[in-house]
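Workshop exercise sheet. Pairs work together: one partner reads the sequence aloud, the other fills in the structure field after running the prediction. Swap roles for the next sheet.
Pair: D.N. / O.F.
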Amino acid sequence: MKIRIAQQDDFTTIAELHAASWRNSYRGVLSDEYLDREIVSERLALWKHRFKNPRANQYIVVAEQEASIVGFACAYGNEDEQWGTMLDNLHVLPAQKGHGVGRKLMTHIASWCSAAYPRKGLFLWAFEQNVLARSFYERLGGMVAGNTVWIAPDGSAVTELRYAWKNADILVHSS
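Structure field:
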């Protein structure tokens, strides 16, 4: 498996993978209508915008196996004064879950974070109902450090938990 920086022409594949991941993980959390009908066009618009108008602290990588993208991560360096870098997206093709792709992406993001923003933390938001993702983050040493309610694109109100690592180096050296 190879981790590389995402290129402009990856945005369609990333959007489709993002939609497939949400369909697999968020059924019962987000509306079926949104997941079945709207998610692909909505994710395409999001990723097209992110690639055309990247924020200065945006960092997107993809995981490739046999020249196919099987996962991706998007982080915003030092996004929050208290919590550090925000890992906004970490998604793996449903068929590839449990094969180390997510762990490799997390380790890569943590390494980037440690190099670009030394001694800063890393955090992300996970749906409270997403027990599998929460278990994954907890195995990597993430601690729940707050919650909020997010209004999803379909209008659903979803409770999110902030998972945080005080220093990204912890993640780099634990993997």
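Discussion prompt: Residues 32-52 form the longest helix (21 residues). What would you look at next?
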